[in-house]
Amino acid sequence: MTESADIALIGLAVMGQNLILNMNDHDFVVCAYNRTTSKVDDFLQNEAKNTKVVGAHSLKEMVAKLKKPRRVMMLVKAGEAVDNFIDQLVPLLEPGDIIIDGGNSEYQDSNRRCKDLKEKGILFVGSGVSGGEEGARYGPSLMPGGNPDAWPHIKNIFQSIAAKADGEPCCDWVGDGGAGHFVKMVHNGIEYGDMQLICEAYSLLKDALRMNQEEMSKVFDDWNRGELDSFLIEISRNILKFKENGDYLLEKIRDSAGQKGTGKWTAIASLEYGIPVTLIGESVYARCLSSLKDERVSACKLLDGPTSKFEGDKEEFVEHIRKALYASKIVSYAQGFMLLREAAKVFNWNLNYGGIALMWRGGCIIRSVFLGNIKKAFEKNPELTNLLLDDFFRDAIHKCQTSWRIVVSEAARLGVPIPAFYTALAFYDGYRSSRLPANLIQAQRDYFGAHTYELNDKPGVFIHTNWTGTGGKTASTNYLA
Ligand code: NBP
Q1: Residue 286: which H helix or E strand, with range?
Q2: What pLDDT shows up at residue 481?
Q3: Which member of 146, 200, 214, 452 lies 3.0 to 4.6 Å from 462 by CB, making a disulfide possible if both were Cys?
């Protein structure tokens, strides 16, 4: 058997098949394998017909067809399937060979796999892959991390098949261990936030301004020509005007959104590391609330809201919504990068934030012009602690904030739920406050639980007061919460 294949790809579902064809377009010879091996034959006889793709019906046969060091990429269901394949592959591989997991795996799993495989001499890479079917076929955003010794051996393949933005590949080495999957997780969380913000803008146009689908589609089309230019605004414009048998399809779709978990993981990580990624959290909760459809239908008959109607200038308000959306989006990305920065500290990752913005600039679902501005901000100042403090974004928020406040107060007045817009504004006001009411929280905790408190002029010194005159002198063990 000749060792002719540059890389093996396990998992012939939508992502795997398309990534193989993409690799083939870039002159790499790929060996295809799948648990259900009949799919290998189907693929070779159909989609991969007349390509250089080869197939294998066992992992042993697959490994024998690979050039050394062997590169094996998996695009299978995250979780047990990945561990099962790793267990089967290890005895077939040699030290220095590479296993890449391109699925949506949890970053903690990738941390563990990277460490375990290193002990066996195998180089593990956990790579985020974004862009869905189309991205996989014509250029995804790729976020590889793991054992850095693997990168020189996969760089050429990865950067060749990745999307390009301003001539640069949307793929670079992210960092050690689970860094690639962490960055992919935050990407997905931001995707939840972007989608929720767009839904809230749609809700304001529809329910506050009573616009029809054609008018709303036109608004999104206008927005897509400016600062909000992005894949998600573009597809929302197309969805709004899409008709089936003469009727708009969108109105017939049930208002109950599902999720696969990566937004929830981001929210969990934000709580774990104590970073207020409130907009992504609110977006996950908004999906949860949407899925309580039956309860909402009952509640709407019992719970009253305001009966007021919008009475202002429609065109002017559309512009207020655009600005509120833009400002909220800036907050969402600022929060996402805050989480990345904290994780980098916890795991000792040397993350390149401008590089991450570039990886998301093209190929993936959150691709946008806006990410080019984020890349510039981090290039200008790689130590930037918060995007809100960059001149460009600070000025942008300053220009938008009056509109943002008008939209949030009008939505509250009319009873239109826009939780992501609200939370973004609340975060902004909290972040720019040199004094928050947490002094009262400290006092309350000490009052009822002797948790102690710090004084303004003595930070780090914890004292307890007997507030009622009936408590004792003993303080509780202090912990920051
Ligand atoms: P799926 O997530 O539907 O996975 C299908 C593949 O997993 C098939 O090859 C299937 O083999 C294999 N598999 C399953 Br299911 N259970 C297995 C098990 N217990 N042991 C071994 N193999 C098993 O495919 P996908 O939508 O192409 O996604 C692949 C990966 O990429 C996933 O981790 C996904 O989260 C991620 N991802 C997907 C997208 C997207 O837009 N779809 C985007 C980005 C990332 P079989 O044919 O024998 O059942």
Answers
A1: helix 278-290
A2: 46
A3: 452
**Which of 33, 35, 231 best tests ligand 1's pocket when mutated (most atoms within 8 Å of CB)?**
35
Atom 6, ligand 1: residue with shortest CA distance: 76
Strand, coil or helix: 92: helix
> Using an 8 Å Cβ cutoff, are 331 and 279 in contact?
yes
**276-326 residue pLDDT tens:** 999 999 999 999 999 999 999 999 999 999 999 999 999 999 999 999 999
Distances, alpha carbon 147 to alpha carbons 97, 341, 359, in Å: 11, 20, 19
Active site residues: 184, 191
Tens digit of each residue's pLDDT (9 = 90 or more) over 410-456: 999 999 999 999 999 999 999 999 999 999 999 999 999 999 999 99
Distance 40 CA to ligand 1 centre (A): 14
Residue 37 CB less than 6 A away from ligand 1: no
Record the tokens describing residue 271, joined without a space.
């709580």
Residue 161 and residue 155 in contact, taking contact as beta carbons nearer than 8 Å: no
User: Kind and range of the H or E element at 202?
Assistant: helix 179-203
Q: Which of 90, 115, 99, 114 is nearest to 154 (CA)?
A: 99
Mutation to probe ligand 1, out of 77, 84, 359 (largest number of atoms < 8 A from CB): 77
Rounded distance between C-alpha atoms, residue 416 and residue 159, angstroms: 45
Question: Is the CB–ligand 1 distance for residue 363 below 6 Å?
Answer: no
Contact 196, 420 (CB under 8 A): yes
